[in-house]
């Protein structure tokens, strides 16, 4: 129910004269989730932001240049190297999103993952992606040059709970017919610590902390206006800092699903 209240609340704030910098930030999502793709792959970028009843258009930017598309989703039918770069979006009731990077590679195989840095006990999903999804056989995922997982037919490799031993260099290889091909090597890093991350600007004090129960405690409140948005299953809370213009300090709620503690 509370998700439905966010756009309504934004409309009330705007009608009350809320400044542009007080609007929530738009968010760009990739579908499928892989930010590294091969030439000829199709990619959809989706913009999550608030719209007013009078204007439901979306502005898209590629490497800071405005794209003609005004739909909430931007579709790339057959990716080329020229499609690589940073993508941002904005709606009339949200500010410009953070950039999302898209990398278009040339090759037969590409090792894909949602990201390359994980925390202990995070699940890891690896995919040995072939050009044009060509049939691939006798697929091996390798870590630090040693075989980690073998499939007779191409399949994704899942690590349910990451440990520090899962850090290292990874690549995959397999057979196209009788041709032996390999992907480029990528590095996966497993870090220790809780899943919450404190975000701060240089020279600005941390404005809050979160503990493993998901409850929030503010050490300093630099501004009376609180900005929050949903990022996957995390609630991200920030406050504007008067000490560093155009900069926000904040934190992520380090509990999933949400825990609303008092």
Automatic annotation (TrEMBL):
Pfam families: Ig_2. Its main location: membrane. One of its GO terms (molecular function) is IgG binding. PROSITE patterns: IG_LIKE. Residues 24-105, 120-189 form the Ig-like domain. Residues 1-20 form the signal peptide. It is found in: Cell membrane. Keywords: Cell membrane, Disulfide bond, Glycoprotein, IgG-binding protein, Immunoglobulin domain, Membrane, Receptor, Repeat, Signal. One of its GO terms (cellular component) is plasma membrane. PANTHER family: IMMUNOGLOBULIN FC RECEPTOR (PTHR11481), LOW AFFINITY IMMUNOGLOBULIN GAMMA FC REGION RECEPTOR III-A-RELATED (PTHR11481:SF103). This is Fc gamma receptor IIIa. The lineage of its organism: Eukaryota, Metazoa, Chordata, Craniata, Vertebrata. The gene is FCGR3A.
């Amino acid at each position: 129910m509370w998700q439905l209240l966010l756009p309504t609340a934004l409309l009330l704030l705007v009608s009350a004269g809320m400044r542009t910098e007080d609007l929530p930030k738009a968010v760009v999502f990739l579908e499928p989730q892989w930010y590294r793709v091969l030439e000829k792959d199709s990619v959809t970028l989706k913009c999550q932001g608030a719209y007013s009843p009078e204007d439901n258009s979306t502005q898209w930017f590629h490497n800071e240049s405005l794209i003609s598309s005004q739909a909430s989703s931007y579709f790339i039918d057959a990716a080329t190297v020229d499609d690589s770069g940073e993508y941002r979006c904005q709606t009339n009731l949200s500010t410009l999103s953070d950039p999302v990077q898209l990398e278009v590679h040339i090759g037969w195989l590409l090792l894909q993952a949602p990201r390359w840095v994980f925390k202990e006990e995070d699940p890891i999903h690896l995919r040995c992606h072939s050009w044009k999804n060509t049939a691939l056989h006798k697929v091996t995922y390798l870590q630090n040059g040693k075989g980690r997982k073998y499939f007779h037919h191409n399949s994704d490799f899942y690590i349910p709970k990451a440990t520090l031993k899962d850090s290292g260099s990874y690549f995959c290889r397999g057979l196209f017919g009788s041709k032996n091909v390999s992907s480029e090597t990528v590095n996966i890093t497993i870090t220790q610590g809780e899943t919450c991350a404190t975000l701060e600007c240089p020279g600005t004090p941390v404005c809050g902390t979160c503990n493993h129960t998901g409850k929030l405690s503010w050490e300093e409140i630099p501004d009376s206006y609180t900005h929050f948005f949903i990022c996957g299953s995390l609630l991200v809370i920030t406050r504007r800092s008067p000490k560093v213009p155009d900069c926000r300090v904040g934190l992520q709620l380090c509990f999933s699903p949400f825990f609303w503690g008092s």
